[in-house]
Amino acid sequence: MSALPPVDVTGVDVMAVANPLRCRSWPDRAVPSRVVGRGPGPWTCETRGMAEPTPHTPLTDLLVRVHDHFLPHTEGEVAAFAQAVGGVDADDFGLALTTVDGHTYSVGQDERSFAIQSISKAFTYAIALTDSGFEAVDAVIDVEPSGEAFNEISLQEGTGRPSNALINAGAIAATSLVAGSSSNPHDEGSVARGDTRRDRLVRGYSRMAGRALEVDEEVLAFEREDGDRNLALAHLMRSFDLVTEAPEAVADDYFAACSILVTVRDLSMMAALLATGGVHPQTGERVLDEAVVERVLGVMSTCGMYDDAGEWMVRVGLPAKSGVGGGILVVVPGQAGFAVYSPRLDRHGNSERGVLACEALSAQLDLHLMHGVREPHSAVRVTYPVTAVPSGVRRPPAAATVLERVGHRGRVIEVQGALTFGAAESVMRELCSLQEVDAVLLDVRRVTVVPQFAREGLAAVARGMADAGRVLVLVDDPDRGLAGDAVRVVARRRVGVEAVENLLLERHGGPGLDLEEVEVGDVGVVSTLDAADAKALHARMESRHYAAGEVVIREGDPFVGIHLITSGTVETTSGAAGAAGDEQDVADPTTRGPELRRLAVLGPGHSFGEFGLVGDGRHAATVTAREELQTWLLSPEVLRQLEVEDSGLALRLWQAITREAFTRVRAQMEELAAAAAHAG
Amino acid sequence: MSALPPVDVTGVDVMAVANPLRCRSWPDRAVPSRVVGRGPGPWTCETRGMAEPTPHTPLTDLLVRVHDHFLPHTEGEVAAFAQAVGGVDADDFGLALTTVDGHTYSVGQDERSFAIQSISKAFTYAIALTDSGFEAVDAVIDVEPSGEAFNEISLQEGTGRPSNALINAGAIAATSLVAGSSSNPHDEGSVARGDTRRDRLVRGYSRMAGRALEVDEEVLAFEREDGDRNLALAHLMRSFDLVTEAPEAVADDYFAACSILVTVRDLSMMAALLATGGVHPQTGERVLDEAVVERVLGVMSTCGMYDDAGEWMVRVGLPAKSGVGGGILVVVPGQAGFAVYSPRLDRHGNSERGVLACEALSAQLDLHLMHGVREPHSAVRVTYPVTAVPSGVRRPPAAATVLERVGHRGRVIEVQGALTFGAAESVMRELCSLQEVDAVLLDVRRVTVVPQFAREGLAAVARGMADAGRVLVLVDDPDRGLAGDAVRVVARRRVGVEAVENLLLERHGGPGLDLEEVEVGDVGVVSTLDAADAKALHARMESRHYAAGEVVIREGDPFVGIHLITSGTVETTSGAAGAAGDEQDVADPTTRGPELRRLAVLGPGHSFGEFGLVGDGRHAATVTAREELQTWLLSPEVLRQLEVEDSGLALRLWQAITREAFTRVRAQMEELAAAAAHAG
């Protein structure tokens, strides 16, 4: 690998770079070599099998730049097989990248078919591990780099065991461990089609690529003709009992696997499948076990690039496999797969231009496993006292005072991202370091991935907190079962905050905060009037009783009056279509159904119904008794009578209602400002 | 490496596992072997040099479990040097893990000193690369796995070049490339102390460990005595001109480096320094260049474990380096470093028990590079129309109607986490796929890491959008300069939303929405009265004018009346201490200063001052004219006169004010519910 001058992108207007992106809907080579344009345009390729096309993005431009930069680099020689078979254009150069969610970007000769050759070894190894199991495969094939060239006759001293599955000997041994009967060309009539090992290989590769791949019979014929070294290896391994079937048959299936035709887009899809841990990026189907993929990638890391493996790990830093057909397949675990096709090879048998392009892509996209991006140190997004996000339950003033005093003993901790080891450790450390705390509301709704360590660790932390007299409540989708049964889960933060507020009041509140019953003179607007006015008003009001669950006011009702609660609590909810709710995850509010949203919980000392005064004179929320409820009602009729019979009291009442209203406006503005700060 | 039975943690109450954690404040070996306890307790060790101690967490318990699980495993032999020098307890077993933010967890013999031996090779290589540069080092030392044992006399055919820097030959060559004069033991008087290569090495290692390390003279004497093979290598390399100095002197510095004493806590700190890319985890000081660290880790990945490198990558999957002293150092790039000490070695010269413990830790903590955790597919946290998060600017009803109709053409996209390649690609794809959009507010305040590709890609997307007539605005800390000068950055979402609302009104609003001036009869509460009432009220009001920037009402002023705006706009702000604001990042509100918070922007047709009616009769917000302002004032005196002189109008006015107030309460409740949904 020669030293690569870095692709300088600083100061380059990337959108202005011309775009030779190949589009599958256009005839090969008919693509204008200089399409200048920006934003989604006619060069946007449809992603295979997906409804949503892959748009033109800066990644498109980067692929174009890398492609153009290395296009003039024409060192190296086309492999002997390709020269013999013909039909290979030595100048071909294609790049493709597929994301783990199945979007493929490609450029250059991205639909040109070529022989997969040694890249097949990674997939044959995966299928052998799947079909025969790790133990049987490991008994026959080691996982150490051989440090030798791809076609060395190299078997380990004594055992005859191939060093790894990505050299010829190891791949032949792996082929013999793929399920299916032999497809011996000398005995083709003896096996039913569909049962053969060769079919198993072709179908397996096709499933990974997401389309039906085929063996190129011309390439296969060449490989058979030129197969002496590989037949020698097969025979040698049978002499060690590592291969138990007819060496010719096993070698022939190996030749067939090497002769399968792929495009660089196929390879990038197969690489992306390895990046997901074995799930097909487009269909979501699990094609390979995660353990199999992990093993294959581990071996690719040290053995994938022949005797260039160390240099590759230093310069590109990603698991990869190359083939003498001119392809290189590269895996970015968890993120993407990419592939390059350029048939001229370097002295190691790797695509000369391909290696350069891979190095440039790894550097430009910052993909080197040993560099990577330093993860944020902490998964803790923000932590604040529960008082910063009140539950919306309106409580008596004494209770509010207590919460103001001890609110810091109830903490909300919001956590985000993937709880990989470092992130999980930071969360646990935060939880285990808390001082002067009664309850923690751990909001994990933004957590995306929860590995075993994080799951068990959170459960353990919860138990430890419980033993220390502390309460841990998760805000999460209850179906996710993130931390086991030991931890209470609530779906909404407000519900959790209410529980924490109740706990704090219970522990620190002292007596008299649970207002079970109040006099009507102590309720809402009446409590702000002088004694005579309050008494006069009381005399005009009617007492009302409701059972738990009973609807007191229904959304859309005409104004029924103002209720003053003397005992019990109510919940106000609204089902206004199209408005944002706190019951659901947020996506596009326009897609939301008419789910009910809880607006507030009100208890003794509070009033409701004032909204009926507004706008069209209809109530805009439904009010439901949460338990047995007693109220005093100030009806519209009474309000009208009052204007006529006692205009002084009427004026003072309306002034009091106005004050009450603006007190709420003011408090809500505070809450909104706080919410804006917390939410961003 | 033998097959490892998995450490079964399912169903184990990890908090109940006994805790033999070594604490530095307790005498060695005096730690009770079974301390049962939970939560922070006396076994919490102080993290060296840090104010904040590392608490007891589930990670502590996991280390204890792994330690206890392998404690009975006593296979293998102590190295010859250790047997000869003596003082090594073959049963010693210590584990330590250090996070990238410098918290160390440890268990067992975590303060026992032992010779660093070959682990030094990784750090000598790093120092050689730093002192002599990549070119000079690469000219002498290759980066390929040798596939041979640690002490092979292995130099590449023809060139005599060592295969890599982590075998003896390579490490001796690397030592010769460390700055400083020779510290030839045969000529010690000839160089001043402080200038020698040996000092450079000892100081370099010490800086990485964060404490002064020392050479063990007994071990050094043994290495010199037993140094024939290494002296042979040094001489051989001089014969190839790869080593240009006196071979004895170079070899002696190499021996000295191998004889430096470390603890397993030291090694875990040094590993964590490599995990951060060269920044000291505790001091934040940059000790090594990122490129040097990337190179060292790349070579460790394929060459760190002698001829067990392939198996190690398959089973543990992390860059590592072992030493015959019994230590193994393991790096989890970006997350942590850990180390093991157990002096009995396997046939490869690696710590027998150490390898098993490393494999268990990698598996339990899900650290294997080829497995890892699949990152979330998208960095896009949530996307919604701007109408879901109104700016707080109160606009005329016609404008509100327009925004309702075209609000979806202004999108807010919130992005979070590290914009690694896959994450950045998903954001750009989202931005490039948008249809029917005029403006996008990209809220990147939760983005933690922005590599080059993401930075340049966002700038390119912004340019592409601008050319397509679209506007991209970032919500971010303006000092971060995330996407260059091309993109407008606002610090607060509200400000960005206001800009997007203005743009949408400008493009889709038609004429008449920019209410430059209105009649007082069209303002706020007056507009809801009938014509006669409005006229009567108008006659009692006073006209007021204010210059841009002038304060109309100051927070704390006694009630000055209700202002009705006929032209110009005002901003209301509040400086209430201790309350949450939207100007700052959210942390602990109790730590906040009294910064001003913007509550609302009001324009023609709106009124302000009503809050002075509330509570103690003082205004709770400051109102400032944003531009030249004209209002009509309804003073407290007029309100009082009205009660006496026209009680009917007074009552209707107060009723109107009440309706207006509850309209705002209702709208704010909707906003709060939406904010709760968006914020979580």
What does this structure look like?
Two copies of one chain form a homodimer. Chain A has 680 residues and is an alpha+beta fold. Chain A has three domains: 300 residues, DD-peptidase/beta-lactamase superfamily (Beta-lactamase, 3-Layer(aba) Sandwich); 128 residues, 2-Layer Sandwich (Transcription Regulator spoIIAA), CATH 3.30.750; 140 residues, Sandwich (Jelly Rolls). Chain A is built from 19 helices and 22 strands. In chain A, strands 3-2-8-7-6 form a five-stranded antiparallel beta sheet, sandwiched between helices. In chain A, strands 10-11-12-13-14 form a five-stranded mixed beta sheet. The longest helix of chain A is centred in the last third of the chain and has 33 residues. The radius of gyration of chain A is 36 Å and the shape is elongated. Chain A starts with 57 loop residues before the first helix and ends with a helix. The N terminus of chain A is likely disordered. The interface between A and B is large, with 165 and 165 residues.
Spatial extent as radius of gyration of chain A: 36 Å
CATH topology of the largest domain in chain A: Beta-lactamase
Q: Mean pLDDT score of chain A, rounded?
A: 81
Q: What is the total tally of β strands of chain A?
A: 22
Keywords (chains A, B): Acetylation, Hydrolase
Domain STAS (chains A, B): 412-475
Domain Cyclic nucleotide-binding (chains A, B): 525-660
Family (chains A, B): Belongs to the glutaminase family.
